[in-house]
């Protein structure tokens, strides 16, 4: 499904959207690692590269990450063959202050990952609705690591595998015209 844009944009920007219907087709490890590598080429303040990843591509990790999903997300994301928990490492800048940009930079990493996923015909659906503390505790993460986002990865499947509620929503999210996002005095 391609979005209508006013200007011709990068194909992956036009084609990317947050689908929920996953097929059972497995994601090859090389494709998964390519997504992670793409994410790590995002720019970051002071090149701190605050992104960290927990890969749910093996049964044990996948099962734990699935358990962390809030029910409304578990409903559909439980069928994704891969889940990734994206984390952010809190760092301090040269003057000892907390790096304000850590989570911002992790957002850029997510965006890079999602575009590379689209190029490979993979869905990458961001999920904020999950138990971040559960994952933090299970993996005994350091205090300076924040669990930020879950990402469901996989190939497009049959829309009929979704509940009715989600079948209706299985289309690209709309945008307000970009000019309305430009602030003026
Ligand atoms: C940080 C973040 C959190 C999100 N959390 C959820 C979520 O918990 N459940 C869900 O179904 N979609 C979630 N989404 C997907 C958004 O709803 C989706 O990106 C938005 O509606 C725009 O649609 P599009 O990606 O198809 O353009 C999230 C997206 C982002 C970036």
Keyphrases for this structure?
185 residues; alpha+beta; NADH Oxidase; 4-stranded antiparallel beta sheet; 7 helices; globular; binds flavin mononucleotide
Architecture overview:
There is one protein chain. With 185 residues, the chain is of the alpha+beta class. The protein has one domain (11-156): NADH Oxidase, CATH 3.40.109. It contains 7 helices and 4 strands; from the N terminus they run ααβααβαβαβα. A 4-stranded antiparallel beta sheet has the order 1-2-4-3, sandwiched between helices. Helix 2 packs across helix 5. The radius of gyration is 17 Å and the shape is globular.
Fold topology:
Elements: H1 11-15, H2 29-40, E1 51-56, H3 59-68, H4 71-77, E2 82-89, H5 102-119, E3 123-127, H6 132-138, E4 145-154, H7 164-168
Antiparallel strand pairs: 1-2, 2-4, 3-4
Helix pairs in contact: 2-5
The structure holds flavin mononucleotide.
Flavin mononucleotide binds next to strand 3.
Could you provide a short overview of the structure?
This protein is of the alpha+beta class.
Gyration radius over CA: 17 Å
- Strand fraction: 15-25%
- Number of structural domains: 1
In the CATH scheme, the class would be: Alpha Beta
CATH topology: NADH Oxidase
What is the chains' assembly state? single chain
Helix content: 25-40%
What characteristic shape results from the CA principal axes? globular
Structural class: alpha+beta
Q: How would you write the strand order of the largest sheet?
A: 1-2-4-3
Overall mean pLDDT score?
A: 97
Distance between the terminal alpha carbons, to the nearest Å?
A: 37 Å
* Number of helical regions: 7
* Ligand identities: flavin mononucleotide
Beta-strand segment tally? 4
Largest sheet: 4 strands, antiparallel
CATH hierarchy: architecture: 3-Layer(aba) Sandwich
């Amino acid at each position: 499904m391609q979005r209508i844009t006013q200007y011709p944009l990068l194909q992956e920007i036009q084609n990317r959207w947050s689908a929920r219907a996953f097929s059972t087709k497995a994601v090859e490890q090389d494709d998964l690692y390519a997504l992670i590598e793409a994410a790590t080429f995002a720019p970051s303040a002071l090149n701190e590269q605050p992104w960290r990843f927990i890969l749910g591509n093996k049964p044990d990790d996948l099962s734990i990450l699935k358990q962390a999903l809030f029910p409304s997300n578990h409903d559909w994301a439980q069928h994704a063959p891969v889940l990734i928990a994206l984390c952010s490492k809190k760092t301090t800048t040269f003057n000892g202050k907390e790096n304000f940009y850590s989570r911002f930079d992790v957002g850029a990493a997510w965006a890079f990952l999602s575009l590379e996923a689209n190029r490979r015909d993979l869905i990458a659906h961001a999920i904020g609705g999950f138990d971040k503390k559960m994952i933090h505790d299970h993996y005994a993460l350091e205090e300076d690591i924040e669990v930020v986002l879950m990402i469901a990865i996989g190939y497009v499947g049959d829309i009929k595998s979704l509940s009715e509620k989600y079948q209706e929503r299985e289309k690209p999210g709309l945008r307000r015209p970009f000019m309305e996002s430009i602030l003026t005095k």
